[in-house]
Amino acid sequence: MIKVDISNVWGQIALPDLLAMEQEVASAHATLADGTGAGNDFLGWQNLPVREATEEITRIQRAAAKIRSDSDVFVVIGIGGSYLGPRAAIELLQGPNHNIGKGKGNPQVFFAGNGLSTRHFNELTRLLEDKDFSIAIISKSGTTTEPAIATRALRWMLERKYGTDGAKGRIYAITDPCKGALRQMATEEGWETFVIPPNVGGRFSVLTPVGLLPLAVAGVNIMDMMNGAMDAKESYDLRSFENPVWQYAAVRNLLYRSGKAMEIFESFEPGFKMFGGWWQQLFGESEGKDGKGIFPVTAELTADLHSLGQMIQQGERNIFETMVRFDAPAQTYTIGSDWKNLDGLNYLAGKTLDFVDEKAYLGTLAAHVDGGVPVITMDCGELSDRKVGEMFYFLELCCGVSAYILGVNPFNQPGVELYKRNMFHLLGKPGYEN
Ligand code: PA5
User: Fold this and answer.
1) How far apart are the C-alpha atoms of 4 and 82, rounded to whole Å?
2) Fewer CB atoms near the end CB (10 Å): N or C, the chain?
3) How far apart are CA 85 and CA 93, in angstroms?
4) Interatomic CA distance for residues 219 and 221, integer angstroms
């Protein structure tokens, strides 16, 4: 189970205030579980975890095995909820440099269609020129501009390389089961497709083919991940303050009410950065509405202590932090002894890097708490495929409960839709003249 430690928030909020929230938290959890709240047509994510592979998961595993054997590179096209989840899990499990040394048999995984940068696009197409590659196009609506532009270009590249028929076997579409331009295109062109269930929103879709296909191609055991998510679904249904979901959801709302309007979600693992990005979208898009919401920020420690550290320690006191911890890996690194000791580091000789990391964590925690920044610690234990599945479901549940406590609909994103519509209008898309 993920352990949430709230012992470092008591300088800012009081235990009786937390206990007084019991009814509120219980009711938010029940609203979510019973499907009686706002946005209840988007609760399908609660039914995604499974113990045994479904027919669709088996098909995903088959497609992934083919891609692994015939591609040097797999390009995942998508943006927002149709991209952050798989990238978060791959980087957390395999590190930010996961593509180094990979090729056919264990392909590199790159992401495209998550922006409009010409430089990034040119770099990717240059890289693909002399490589065997396949693509997955992920878009629930099937009409988002960024992935649509990347799709058109990469699909043509594939057709030039392998011919129309050859390209067909290298294009996978993940989209709505019935509607949208991507569904129509995939049907017409004969591409293999996987479904994003209509009752699962983008930011809650990582346990659908959106996450599962790219992760399986990257070599992640997706059934271990699903089992981790199922563990979470079963364990975190507990209706009491012993439930870490309750602790996290209640404390962050109490902190918000006491003026802490910004949360920094951080870890001492560089591979965590994109996971922080996934969390940022999950909580930001779910809670940031009706003039309310905690602003979600992510940071990488210790690197960002050398950039954000000053602000956290002594800037405006409107911040709280959530530090995510993992067990040390089995393979350790021991700091060596240097007879000259010109760097003065011999006092650490014989100590492991993890020992130093642990002290950095404790030192940072004490300094920030002293500086008036409440810190929640989330201890996730051993980092594994199964654990990442548990973390995804756990945080989705926390988000739903937290947003209902805040009093907003966690499952819509009217602000994102507005930007998309404005862009269509400015680009002159037919139908968006006004
Ligand atoms: O969470 C969301 O709904 C958004 O971030 C979408 O996932 C994102 O805008 C991409 O949309 P689509 O999958 O329709 O292309």
Assistant:
1) 29
2) C
3) 12
4) 6
pLDDT mean across residues, the chain: 96
Tokens matching residue 265: 């979600």
User: Quick one: residue 289, left, alpha or beta (phi over 0 = left, psi -120 to 50 = alpha)?
Assistant: beta
Q: Which amino acid is at 127?
A: L
285 is catalytic: yes
**Average pLDDT estimate for 125-140:** 96
Strands (E), 64-179: 73-77, 108-112, 133-138, 171-175
Per the residue annotation, which of 266, 285, 287, 396 is the catalytic one? 285
Q: Which residues contact 405 (CB under 8 A, 6 or more apart)?
A: 21, 24, 25, 28, 249, 250, 253
Given the residues 188, 242, 306, 340, the one annotated as active site: 306
Active-site residue, 420 included = yes
Positive or negative, the CA dihedral 165, 166, 169, 173 is: negative
421, pLDDT greater than 90: no
Ligand 1 atom with least separation from CA of 80: 5
Q: What pLDDT digit, counting tens, does each position of 325-383 carry? A: 999 999 999 999 999 999 999 999 999 999 999 999 999 999 999 999 999 999 999 99
